[in-house]
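Translate sequence into structure tokens.
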Amino acid sequence: MRIAALLVCLIVAFSSVSARADDVATAQGVIRAQEQAFGRGDAAAAYSYAAPAVRELFPAPDIFMSMVQNGYAPVYRHKSFEFGDSKSEGSRIAQHVHIIDANGEAWEALYTLEQQADGSYKITGCSLLKAGQAV
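Result follows.
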């Protein structure tokens, strides 16, 4: 009986880890899709991955794209864009991204995403620091 209870506990624990891993993979897919939209210069597609609160601040795709071009140049144009550590807590995911910008400088981005009512994940923010700088 104890073995059966232990087995059930392990199955539940591993299934929740798997669900979180699936959520992180989904969130990474959203970030990657937005990154590719930036690369194509597709403002509408890039904007579609922004959470409602971000869309309130930047009420049109061209306004959003201009903000990214001017304030997040390493996100907008880069040589490399690699996922680092992630953390999942409830309906929120934090994802680190290591970026090498167009000039060869290293940056660290922290994306935050939140699961929406329809089950999709949308990007709620992105913090950007040159690699090696203190927070």
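Note: The radius of gyration is 18 Å.
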